[in-house]
Design brief:
The chain has helices at about 20, 25-35, 55-65, 85-105, 130-140, and strands spanning about 70-75, 75-85, 110-115, 115-120. With about 150 residues, it is α+β, with helices and mostly antiparallel strands. The chain has a single domain, classed as 2-Layer Sandwich (Gyrase A, domain 2), CATH 3.30.1360.20.
Length: about 150
């Protein structure tokens, strides 16, 4: 597996729209943005809580953009297990996920072992799934596997 490219310089990062800083987007905005662009091309926005978790219809819509191996567990988290030939590849993949998570400021729970990495995504501030979880999952799906 190739090492991940370093994240872009802070000034080179795409600026977040002013509305994103004011709080989460209303559901109809989320759906309109999804229709016009892929989840992987979007950026996570801070979630401070006080917003509802995603409704089931939006979860199902977002799942269509992810690899089929992602599963919604208990309606509260998104999980996937990746398989590798050895521990070194597992660790390298986990480090790439870590770099993506830092760039997005949204952090998954990772379980790393010999030949596997389990990824669990959930937005703790709201106790369930947020758009950010699907954005990060879509970005993880873009990482080449060896």
């Amino acid at each position: 597996m190739r090492p991940a490219a370093p994240p872009p310089a802070r000034g080179a990062m795409r600026p977040r729209p002013a509305l994103a800083r004011a709080g989460p987007a209303p559901l109809h905005w989320i759906m309109a943005e999804t229709e016009s662009g892929s989840l992987a091309s979007r950026t996570c926005v801070p979630c401070r809580g006080g917003v509802p978790t995603l409704p089931e219809d939006v979860i199902l819509m977002f799942l269509k953009e992810l690899d089929d191996q992602w599963r919604v567990v208990e309606g509260k988290r998104l999980e996937r297990e990746f398989r590798f030939k050895n521990f070194r590849q597992s660790m390298a993949f986990a480090q790439v996920i870590g770099a993506i998570a830092e760039e997005q400021k949204h952090h998954p729970d990772l379980c790393v072992g010999w030949g596997y990495v389990r990824v669990a995504l959930s937005t703790h501030a709201i106790g369930g799934l947020h758009e950010n979880d699907f954005i990060l999952a879509a970005r993880i799906d873009r990482v080449p596997l060896e």
